[in-house]
Amino acid sequence: MDFYITTPIYYVNDKPHIGHAYTTIVADALARWRATQGEHVTFSTGVDENSQKTVDAAKKAGQEIGAYTDHMAETWEAAWRTLGISYTDFIRTTEERHLEVVRDIWGRLEAAGDLYKGMYEGLYCKGHEVFIKESDLVDGLCPEHKTAPEVVREENYFFKLSEYQEKLLEFYNAHEDFVVPANRFKEVRAFVEQGLEDVSFSRERKEGRAEWGIPVPNDPHQAIYVWADALVNYITVAGLEGWENHPADVHTVGKDILRFHAVIWPAMLMSAGLPLPGQVAANGFLTVDGIKMSKSLGNGVDPLDLAARYGVDALRYFLLREVQYGEDGDYSELKMKERYNADLANGLGNFAARVLTLAEKEGKLPMGLQTKESTQAFHAMGRTVREKMSAYKFSEALAAIWDAIAFGDRYVNDKKVWEIKDEAERREILADLVALLEAIAAEVAPFMPETAGKIKAAIVADGDSIVAKKPDILFPRIH
Ligand code: MSP
Questions:
Q1: Closest-lying ligand 1 atom to the alpha carbon of residue 255
Q2: Is 253 close to ligand 1, i.e. is its CB under 6 Å away?
Q3: Does the N terminus or the C terminus of the chain have fewer Cβ atoms within 10 A?
Q4: 46 Cβ below 6 A of ligand 1
Q5: DSSP 8-state class, residue 421
Q6: Ligand 1 pocket: which of 52, 75, 256 to mutate (most atoms <8 Å of CB)?
Q7: What Å distances lie between residue 39 and 2, 4, 33, 34, CA to CA?
Q8: Ligand 1 centroid to 412 CA: how many Å?
Q9: Does 3-283 match 332-468 in CATH topology?
């Protein structure tokens, strides 16, 4: 393995909405892009099951918990399959391989003297699965879930996060790119600089709460807090030894869970004597028509519904092109249609159809780029895409590909290929256009794998020549 990338593992109390799809598609584009660079990629995703939310959701659905989680895990995995996610491992936190690693890590934290029993008192929001500060409440309610938190007083195991303040800051200083984008790294740093409090790492197991989590080794009346269990999934996928040799290169996460990944997780790994991940990349939040989406509010947009109406690649394209990575973004039907018609139907789709129709008429063509002009456009695209992908600037990487499409369109128009009488000249330009289209397909493949495949399949090598065959319309116009 050369490159190990992860998505968060998703709660199974609901089905995916486009916010989850966005995080996963980002990771997929990165994973696929790395693979095109010749790297052997491990790409993990999965579901987070050991939470009280799961118990509540199963009850609400009137299902036995095992059957419910099996069904939901399959729902998530099927969604990712439909969206072309090239994961190499799908982890469920109820799997035995995971329980073993969680117990091992717990033992390491304990052996390091970083776990102790203490009294916990706090306001607990079930929707968040976290204790919530009084100052964050609005009219006594959790502002996101609009429910009153429970007052909880109980004995818990605590993790000595406070001991790791200095070590974390040292680590951040030595790893300038540990969190991207840089502004989020600043927030993380500022948070740690304020001083860290120890965090509760277990829950008392009782009816209605923590019935379902992983029991604390040698203390079955306590369940491991769902986050302390969930983060460990990244080790489970690699295997302990695997992680020691090659920890994750990138954890892709949403900004809501950045602190867990950039503060608590590295501290846990330090305590366990294990290597730290290379980077945590945080995306912003997606709204729909300007309104925040959340499982609890039930206003999510179904990515499978969008994929069925516009196509998987159109959805992937929209999200990666429209959202500036790291910033919040917005989905609306109108913007989706606009991008679809302008960039896909009139842009890539039309260019591919033009080139392949002309080339098909011509028959066999020489292989490869022929002129300096198009070779330059080709190199500019490659260079920019590489640079932007390394910087998580997906929208700009796509813009660079669309620059090459615009170049190609201009090239066809300026040369008026269909009017050229001189056969050698016409063949040269057509060969150029086909080679450029092929390069565009290769660059676009991590973002739009299906479309890239269709274009590539339309261009067949025949000895030193190529033969083009016009495919069906790639992106039929939508009204
Ligand atoms: N189970 C935890 C993660 C554990 S990782 C060790 C969890 N799950 S979640 O299902 O609630 O959300 C996971 C992620 O989904 C978020 O961090 C974020 O990446 C993504 N998103 C959820 N809603 C989103 C939007 N509205 N917009 C963009 N991403 C969103 O938290």
A1: 17
A2: yes
A3: C
A4: no
A5: -
A6: 256
A7: 6, 10, 9, 6
A8: 45
A9: no
Query: Do residues 43 and 90 make contact, with C-beta atoms less than 8 angstroms apart?
Result: no
Residue 212 three-state SS: coil
Site to substitute for ligand 1 among 13, 14, 23, most atoms within 8 A of C-beta:
23
Q: Dihedral of CA 84/90/94/95: which sign?
A: positive
What are the structural domain ranges in the chain?
3-283, 332-468
> Is omega for the bond preceding 181 within 30 degrees of 0, making it cis?
yes
Domain 332-468 fold = Isoleucyl-tRNA Synthetase; Domain 1 (1.10.730)
- Cα of 13 from ligand 1 centre, angstroms: 12
Query: Could you give the maximum distance between any two Cα atoms of the chain, in Å?
Result: 87
Token pair in block for residue 140: 């006594």
pLDDT digits (tens, 9 = 90+) for 261-310: 999 999 999 999 999 999 999 999 999 999 988 766 777 899 999 999 99
Residue nearest to atom 8 of ligand 1 (CA): 10
What is the C-alpha separation between 464 and 195, in angstroms, rounded? 66
Mean pLDDT computed over every residue of the chain = 95
In 82-187, the DSSP E strands lie at 89-92, 115-125, 130-132, 150-159, 179-180
**How many A from CA of 8 to the centre of ligand 1?**
7
Query: How confident is the model over 132-150, as pLDDT tens digits?
Result: 888 889 999 988 888 899 8
Q: Flag whether pLDDT at 55 surpasses 80.
A: yes
What is the pLDDT at residue 121?
87
Tens of pLDDT along 351-370?
A: 999 999 999 999 999 999 88
Atom index in ligand 1 nearest the CA of residue 261 equals 6
Give the full edge-to-edge strand order of the sheet including 115-125.
Answer: 130-132, 115-125, 150-159, 199-200
The bridge status of strand 89-92 relative to strand 41-48 is parallel
pLDDT per residue as tens digits for the range 28-44: 999 999 999 999 999 99
CA 244 to mean position of chain CA atoms: 24
CATH 3.40.50.620 corresponds to the domain 3-283:
yes
Whole-number Å distance, alpha carbon 47 to ligand 1 midpoint, is 11
**In this model, does residue 201 exceed pLDDT 80?**
yes
CA triplet 182, 185, 191: central angle to 5 degrees? 150
List all residues 6 or more positions away from 55 whose beta carbon is below 8 Å from its beta carbon. 65, 211, 212
pLDDT of 209 reads: 63
- pLDDT tens track for 203-233: 888 766 667 789 999 998 999 999 999 999 9
Give pLDDT, residue 210.
Answer: 62
Q: Specify the pTM.
A: 0.95
